[in-house]
């Protein structure tokens, strides 16, 4: 596809705006959670689902939406999704209960699932080779900046308005994106599309929800509950059926042949593991800065900006890293820097030392951007343009699934560590402070000053102890991933030329 330079710049701007919107909306909720806890009093499970519903709905539908975009047009799907995102944002802002908020966040996830594969596949069809790597590097850095802008924007709004205002700011952004997208974006789609297999859609969604529910509940309350067993069997069964069904379809929802490309499968696997460890940081440190350090939401948001500067730097440096060292070494370096960042994070204490956090944030941000930039460009570069939507969807599914699982598993593990380390003073009902740090803060404010201070001190110490262990485990995971990337991505070319389209698969059975 050949378009002018000005329109190319406009295309990048619209796609980055869409990615920023998703990133901000994902992280801004982490800042809102303390306020939500005070006003809605959700249970620990409800609080995790409020945080996870968006990511899980997004991950569950990305494959489907990527395929739909290949068939109906990526521009058309992006505009529809952006409009739905605006409507869902209004519903989320005015949700009166935890249950309705979870449902509204899930609807936002559905809308976001239409945006993410559309933006990447549009970039894939407009840019090629070194130009694509540079564009993805810049857009990745700016997208990670969105993870920092979320707390900043949210902090400002929470200091002046009610919690729902952080979602209403999506509306004007959506209006600009829809108008600009309609005028600027080029349309592209698969010239020979097939039908969507509805059964595959259902199997993938039920399978993912079942597995995620199992992980969350096992981490929180252990095995031995009938709902956990049912969810585990249903999730594994549906995912197995999904994988076995795909090769038997003329138009599979997930083309498993893509995974035969070593560069594709290794990069997807690396992305899942990296995001598993990394996205939980935003959730944990929003709580640390507000509930342990006692900072306001706005101050907490400002505190995270240097890390986003590191992310922008990493995104800009990634194409140079590919050119100088190759893809395997660049991703390995990103993983190693992330491991160092996690190790530095593990040194935090109840008394905050911001200079220590500053070093950790910058190193971590550079590492994360290196991983995501190179991984995204690699996944898009090794598949034909006609499959850009499906490949983009798999890449984004890896990102979102890894991140969502990280929040569920590491968030639940942090909760379990908090409960195991918590020392409950005499005369204080255990159930009142043992679930979450937020609950302990609320209870402490209602107790006599001396007793309340003791409850608060014990709760903060237990939370920080759990956070330190979680960060050390994440550092070890990223160190292993750094070594693994050097082997799994060895030999992948620095410059990925457009591959030829393969013949259509012959169905084994309908």
From TrEMBL:
Transmembrane segments: 12-32, 47-65, 77-96, 102-123, 135-156, 162-184, 196-214, 226-244, 264-289, 301-322, 329-352, 358-380, 401-418, 469-489
Keyword ATP-binding annotated: no
Record Pfam families: MFS_1 (PF07690)
Record's keyword annotation contains NADP: no
Entry's localization field: Cell membrane
GO cellular component terms listed in the entry, alphabetical order: plasma membrane
Primary localization class, coarse: membrane
Keyword annotations from UniProtKB, A to Z: Cell membrane, Membrane, Transmembrane, Transmembrane helix, Transport
SUPFAM superfamilies named among the record's database cross-references: MFS general substrate transporter
InterPro entries the record matches: MFS, MFS_dom, MFS_trans_sf
Domain Major facilitator superfamily (MFS) profile: 11-493
GO molecular-function terms, A-Z: transmembrane transporter activity
Membrane topology: Multi-pass membrane protein
Protein name: MFS transporter, DHA2 family, methyl viologen resistance protein SmvA
Native species: Amycolatopsis keratiniphila
Lineage: Bacteria, Bacillati, Actinomycetota, Actinomycetes, Pseudonocardiales
């Amino acid at each position: 596809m050949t378009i002018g330079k000005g329109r190319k710049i406009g295309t990048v701007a619209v796609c980055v705006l869409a990615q920023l919107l998703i990133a901000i909306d994902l992280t801004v909720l982490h800042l809102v959670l303390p306020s939500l806890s005070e006003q809605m009093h959700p249970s620990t499970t409800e609080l995790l689902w409020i945080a996870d519903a968006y990511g899980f709905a997004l991950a569950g539908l990305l494959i489907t939406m990527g395929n739909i975009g290949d068939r109906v047009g990526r521009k058309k799907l992006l505009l529809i999704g952006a409009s739905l995102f605006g409507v869902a944002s209004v519903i989320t802002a005015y949700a009166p209960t935890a249950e309705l908020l979870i449902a509204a966040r899930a609807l936002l996830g559905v809308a976001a699932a239409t945006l993410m594969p559309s933006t990447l596949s549009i970039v894939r069809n407009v840019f090629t080779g070194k130009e694509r790597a540079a564009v993805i590097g810049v857009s990745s850095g700016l997208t990670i900046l969105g993870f920092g802008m979320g707390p900043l924007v949210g902090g400002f709004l929470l200091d002046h308005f009610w919690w729902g205002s952080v979602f209403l700011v999506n509306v004007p952004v959506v209006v600009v994106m829809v108008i600009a997208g309609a005028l600027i974006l080029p349309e592209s789609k698969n010239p020979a599309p097939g039908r969507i297999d509805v059964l595959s859609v259902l199997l993938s969604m039920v399978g993912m929800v079942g597995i995620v529910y199992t992980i969350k509940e096992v981490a929180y309350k252990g095995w031995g509950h009938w709902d956990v067993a049912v969810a585990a069997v249903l999730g594994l069964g549906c995912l197995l059926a999904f994988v076995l069904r795909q090769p038997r379809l003329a138009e599979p929802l997930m083309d498993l042949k893509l995974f035969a490309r070593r560069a594709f499968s290794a990069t997807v696997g690396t992305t899942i593991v990296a995001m598993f460890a990394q996205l939980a940081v935003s959730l944990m440190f929003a709580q640390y800065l507000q509930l342990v350090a006692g900072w306001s939401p706005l101050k907490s948001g400002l505190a995270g900006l240097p890390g986003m500067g590191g992310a922008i730097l990493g995104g800009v440096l990634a194409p140079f890293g590919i050119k100088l060292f190759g893809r395997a070494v660049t991703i390995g370096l990103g993983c190693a820097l992330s491991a160092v960042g996690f190790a530095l994070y593990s040194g935090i204490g109840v008394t905050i030392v911001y200079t220590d956090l500053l070093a950790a944030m910058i190193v971590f941000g550079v590492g994360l951007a290196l991983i995501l930039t190179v991984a995204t460009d690699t996944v898009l570069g090794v598949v034909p343009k006609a499959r850009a939507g499906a490949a983009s969807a798999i890449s984004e599914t890896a990102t979102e699934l890894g991140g969502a699982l990280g929040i569920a598993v590491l968030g639940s593990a942090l909760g379990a560590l908090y409960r195991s380390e918590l020392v409950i003073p005499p005369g204080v009902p255990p159930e009142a402070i043992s679930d979450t740090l937020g609950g302990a803060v609320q209870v402490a404010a209602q107790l006599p000053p001396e007793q309340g201070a003791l409850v608060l001190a014990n709760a903060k110490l237990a939370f920080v102890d759990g956070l330190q262990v979680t960060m050390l485990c994440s550092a070890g995971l990223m160190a292993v991933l750094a070594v693994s990337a050097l082997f799994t991505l060895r030999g992948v070319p620095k410059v990925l030329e457009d591959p030829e389209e393969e013949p259509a698969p012959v169905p084994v059975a309908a």
